[in-house]
């Protein structure tokens, strides 16, 4: 089976699930938790943001920008956005206080370069989330891997972030905060 993570697949997924995605309790719990981690930031980049519902959970004083390859999804909510593929990750001529990438690592064959790119774009922290030991490739064709707390922690340890990251375990999500 070929990888379904294509631009066309995601555009179709967003249009078919738009009304329920933003009100899903699992997503809302994650957004609230991560917004709290960003509370002291002046600027946040939300990578692979889709429509950008996460921005609704941040204080209005925070400059919130989104990047995604699906311009149709980005146009759903007002605010600044960048249309770009994330693999390979684009080069930007600026940085953000916090770079957030939620529910993307499980879609990547090799998440290491992506994690390093996000970390290089942040002034203070990069935050990543994945589903907590659920929805592996056998359950969700868009996912190429499944993480539990141990494999999630080991990923960041293996990439050289030992001593700089903290992992959090919500019921449905695993979250890693890497600080500079």
CA-to-CA gap between the ends? Answer: 40 Å
Side by side, the strands of the main sheet go 3-2-1-4-5-7-6
In helices, the fraction of residues equals: 25-40%
- The oligomerization state is single chain
Give the helix/strand class. alpha/beta
Low-pLDDT segments:
none
Which CATH architecture would you pick?
Answer: 3-Layer(aba) Sandwich
User: Tell me, what is the CATH class?
Assistant: Alpha Beta
| Number of helical stretches of at least 4 residues | 5
Radius of gyration: 15 Å
Query: What is the global morphology?
Result: globular
Total number of distinct structural domains: 1
How would a crystallographer describe the biggest sheet? 7 strands, mixed
Number-wise, the strands total 7
Amount of beta strand: 15-25%
Order of helices and strands: HHEEHEEHEHEE
Average pLDDT, rounded to a whole number, is 88
Would you give the CATH topology? Rossmann fold
CATH-level-4 superfamily name: Vaccinia Virus protein VP39
């Amino acid at each position: 089976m070929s990888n379904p993570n294509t631009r066309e697949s995601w555009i179709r997924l967003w249009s078919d699930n738009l009304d329920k995605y933003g009100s899903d309790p699992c997503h809302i719990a994650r957004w609230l938790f991560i917004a709290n981690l960003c509370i002291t930031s002046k600027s946040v980049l939300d990578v692979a943001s889709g429509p950008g519902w996460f921005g609704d959970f941040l204080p209005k004083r925070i400059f919130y920008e989104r990047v995604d390859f699906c311009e149709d999804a980005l146009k759903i909510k007002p605010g600044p956005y960048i249309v770009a593929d994330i693999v390979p990750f684009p080069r930007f001529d600026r940085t953000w206080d916090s770079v957030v990438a939620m529910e993307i690592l499980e879609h990547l064959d090799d998440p290491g370069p992506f994690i390093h790119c996000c970390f290089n774009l942040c002034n203070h922290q990069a935050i990543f989330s994945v589903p907590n030991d659920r929805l592996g490739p056998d359950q969700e064709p868009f996912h190429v891997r499944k993480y539990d707390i141990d494999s999630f922690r080991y990923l960041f340890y293996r990439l050289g972030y030992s001593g700089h990251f903290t992992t959090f375990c919500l019921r449905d999500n695993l979250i890693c905060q890497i600080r500079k």
